[in-house]
Batch of 3 targets.
Target 1
Amino acid sequence: MKNKLETEARQHLAKIQELIDHYHQIPFIQEYLKKPINPRNNEENKWLTFYKRTLAKRDEIVQYLLHDILERAIQKSSSSKSSWGENLEDIQREFQRADDFPYLEMPYGWSIHFILNMEKLDYRMINPLLNKVGWFDVDKLYGIDYTDQINKTIQFRVSKSRFFETLISELRQIPVVREREDIFNQMSELFNTSIF
């Protein structure tokens, strides 16, 4: 059991190391490693944020391999048959996978599935559609780029007045912003009358 868990965990670690090697090719990261400096622009900030996140994930996997894997293998070997039943076998398998590899995550979506979430680690996999899923067809969420046509579809589906009503209503819940509601009302008025 331990060998099986260790083999898969080492595959995850190799994937993370490959990504770290990529980051080490970026001139800003090379500069940062010689002498830590603050990012000078958004691109450098993005690289550094994702790089640090990737290092943290590597450390999680190493910690698991060095200290936790044996305990999980013993626990898994001694566990009895599941009481989940046949209808829930797939879900049970996914939760067991999360217990087997606690550094895996369930990505944003509509199914229970634990993965090594590379979208959170590799800046090249940023999905510009993920925060717009309420405004276009969900089946377009993966495998396509953000295009002018998608942008037009989103703009067509977004009601300007409803958007600002919802935004202002939600902002009222934030104490720091509450005092500035008039600014957002003015922004709404300008946007809806196309005066800017």
Target 2
Amino acid sequence: MALLVTALWAGQAGAAGYPFQDTALAPDARIANMLSLMTVDEKIDALSTDSGVARLGIPSFGSTEGIHGIVRRGDQDHQKSRITTTQFPQPPGMGASWDPALVRRAGAVQSTEARYITQSAAYQKPAPQPMLM
């Protein structure tokens, strides 16, 4: 999924001439082309918090996690500011509550915060800062 999102952004992001940048191609074909062009090291690196492949003009989609609340630490190298959000106990702690409704409410808070962050102009400076959860 992350590679699909990255491939779709890459179609608008820079270097021209790669089939994966052709938005008329089916997503499966675009992904297959992108993966065929990436080295093993680039594929491994794409699994990290810096998922971009500069050589192919693929920008990083960033990194966040939400198993106990949305977490995005600041990163001066990539001009990303820290975002303060609601934090919940880790999954074992939530499970120990034996309260499925409580866990659903925590998930609802996380989804609301994620949507607000990705859709709010205040968090899109100096450039759009997408999250993939």
Target 3
Amino acid sequence: MQRQRNGGNYSGGAPWGVTDLKAAVLYLKFNDDTLPGDSQRIFSFCHSGGGAQSVILGASGDSEMYTPYLESIGAAIIDRNGIKLSDSICGAMCWCPINSLDTADKAYEWTMGQYSTDGTRGTGTWTGALSDDLASEYAKYINDLGFRSPNGKPLSLEKSEDGIYTSGSYYDYMLKIERIP
């Protein structure tokens, strides 16, 4: 989802996911006297894309960069006595956080999505076309990085018969290093 602020769009929805998390933290702190628990002991626990947002939430406590976004959604920024609330949390547990958010969907579709057998990416469906497009874009991304094997051989992906780049030296290398003895 993209939100607009001052006429601008933000790629991938950033910074709104973390802004929403910060707003939730501020809500808990604003209502600390009426809610159970200790608002000074808030932990964020997330996985994958949520893990990335959890990292940002944990590392950006009280960052002024979020103030305009929090204000634009009407988040509680001051308490009932007019004292500024803190959006800092006590800790963040981030399992497998995606650190390349701009390529994560492409990587997922290349490694797993295109092999889905549950029908969600079937031939002739828009989700199938999207999966194929993302997988192809990931191949272009990999090829542009200029990876090399430990012996210096260039690693690249080549368009396969099905058109989704599941061949080439990068593909062969990934299969080789991913095998568990």
